[in-house]
Amino acid sequence: MAILGNIIKSFIQLKDTFSSEIEHTKAQEEVLKHLLEKAKDTQFGRHYKFEDILNDDNSSEAFAKGVPYFDYNKINEEWWYKLHEGDVDVTWPGNPSYFALSSGTTGTTSKRIPVTDDMIEAIRQAGIKQVFALNNYDLPADFFEKEIMMLGSSTDLDEKDDHLEGEISGISASNIPSWFKSYYKPGEDIAKIDDWDKRVQRIAERAKDWDIGALSGIPSWIELMLQKVIDYHKVENIHDIWPNLKVYTSGGVAFGPYEKSFKALMGKPVTVIDTYLASEGYIATQVRPETDAMQLNTDNGIYFEFVPFQPEYINQDGSLKDDAPSVTLKDVELDQDYVLIISTVSGAWRYLIGDTIEFTNVERAEIKITGRTKFFLNTVGSQLSVNKMDAALRDLEAQFDTTIPEYTICAHRAEDGEFYHCWYLGSELKNADETEIAKALDASLKAANKNYKVARSKALKGVKVKVVAPEKFYDWNARNKKKGGQVKMERVMGEEKFEDWEAFILES
Q: Which residue intervals define the domain GH3 middle in the entry (predicted)?
């Protein structure tokens, strides 16, 4: 009998019984007030008159009018650079204990995003919320006695002056509470290995020593790790090694593109729970099994604003125009893509995180990630967002009985002067008829997107497809950024980057 598991499960159930439902709009008002109050005497707070905003009858409206939008480059050039020169109380009281390194999905140069002690606590509280939400899932008591494999970046953080630097998953894992360490795998020694291939090799060698009940990590790297374990032990699926694996906590990207290839590595069904942990904070987590949408963490260190994702509000580089209107949680609508804007306890203010979302349930503050502002392909009016591309590739998987976990696309002007959408699909499909795949892809996009259909009848000449092994995408990331951790593949490339990509494919 799972005595400890029953105790933990009973505690979670009891906590849920006495917990009240969050009033998300009210929670956001309180978060904004807390942020402004705590940061009013910082350099940023004095410059933008936070004291006046707090005293305004409508603080949220005054905040939106009084503080401009920032992306990483703008806030770093105007404010965060001071942190590296020894200034204190810049955009948040004191100095950050950590900087999260992130090259995102488009660059090779790491961003250095402040992570304060307040943010570490906010992430911890969001993690506790996720644990208590497990009460909503039909999990047996013995699940709560199993170990959890968290595959992120290295926890061996770099010491720089008065702070530590690393990817957010490594920072988070290095701050796990002591009571959790007996559950946490691969354990501190292996987690500190910086070389991703060596770390995964050690995981494969030790895999049979662990009784893993849950996995956590970005889908692409989790799949590669699972395949390595399966190959090393010469078994058919991961449940031959970890028979009690019941939960996978996904994060960083939409799980949809990986669903079919992930299931192929399983021996039995696994509950997938989506989460949204970015370098800038723990944005949202799935709290119930009836939906795969995630609930915004509205009461926990992040104030959210939303800009309707419409071409007239977006610059060519994916940044926001200064006069783009924003709404707060109380005014959002269903069936509308929004650019996500956050202000946080790490001193990010009206910050463009780069993601687009849509609401699936306004009252519950539940969202889905729909894409990236920089990955919105609007060349010649085609208006393709990542979620539309993902949906089309799910159609291809069904039509051609394959998996396509990775892809990238470029709107490319060919030698004939015409624009084509050039797709590279990561698939193990043998003897692929790329012409037929291109026709099917084109038809799916036309059926689902009227703007794309109009573009195809006018300035967009056609679709070209090349099928390559999924490993090519991982090798590209390894060459340009790094394997594992928070690294994700860019879905849309500019022509210059696309030329490098095509040269890389020819070389490899």
A: 298-362
